[in-house]
Amino acid sequence: EVQLVESGGGLVQPGGSLRLSCAASGFTFSSYEMNWVRQAPGKGLEWVSYISRGGSTTYYADSVKGRFTISRDNAKNSLYLQMNSLRAEDTAVYYCAREGIRFGELIDAFDIWGQGTMVTVSS
Amino acid sequence: DIVMTQSPDSLAVSLGERATINCKSSQSLLYSSNNKNYLAWYQQKPGQPPKLLVYWASTRESGVPDRLSGSGSGTDFTLTISGLQAEDVAVYYCQQYYSTPYTFGQGTKLEIK
Question: Phi, psi at residue A32, to the nearest 5°?
Fold first, then answer.
């Protein structure tokens, strides 16, 4: 079964750090581009970050640039998000999401999502 | 950044009727080199992650019922749900993946009238 499972969320004080992980299974992880997307309580979806298949190319939303770092370990089938200098407005469910491939073609849309991990930034 | 604007914000439709959700982008999502619109639609039910419904603006994802369809090109797109069923109650989002930052519409909440 194709699956993404996030972990590492929790309660952290403003200014603190957390590292989220996303474990992939059921597919060749190294063949797929990956993203993090977040959703604040009761709000819509916000794209956070992207990483290429080999990890050499990354992009970030302006709201997290300089504070968050996306990375991956293809040998461990894992995606990560290092979050530093956390703010109250970073409180959200964080999802990892895969960019799909159909008939050998990248479709870029997010075809597989994890269940999410909750990050709460509060004193 | 490309701004995605959905309308309406919420929608109540009777069972068996048609629901139409619109999405407008602040710039064209049509990539001239391959003639594809970089627009996707997602469905999110309470407590669940989003589910991909449509990509390339009109290509239905495998397993998605054919009563859901996407259309449009350039800057104006539509998700149509024909023969509304109770299971369609959800929030629907459009997303552009033409360029980063990838952006989502604000969501449209679909309910049964």
Answer: -120, 140
Cβ–Cβ contact A107 with B under 8 A: yes
Q: Which residue of A has its CA nearest to B101?
A: A61
**Which residue of B3, B21, B96, B102 to mutate against A (max A Cβ within 10 Å)?**
B102
Say if residue B101 is preceded by a cis peptide, omega within 30 of 0. yes
DSSP B6-48: EE-SEEEE-TTS-EEEEEEESS--EETTTTEE-EEEEEE-TTS
Chain A residues within an 8 Å CB radius of B44: 45
Contact A71, A82 (CB under 8 A): yes
Per-residue pLDDT of chain A (123 residues; tens, 9 = 90+): 999 999 999 999 999 999 999 999 999 999 999 999 999 999 999 999 999 999 999 999 999 999 999 999 999 999 999 999 999 999 999 999 999 998 888 888 999 999 999 999 999
Burial class (CB in 10 A: 0-12, 13-18, 19+), B32: exposed
Give the list of residues 6+ apart from residue B81 with CB closer than 8 angstroms, or none: B13, B18, B19, B20, B21, B67, B68, B88, B110
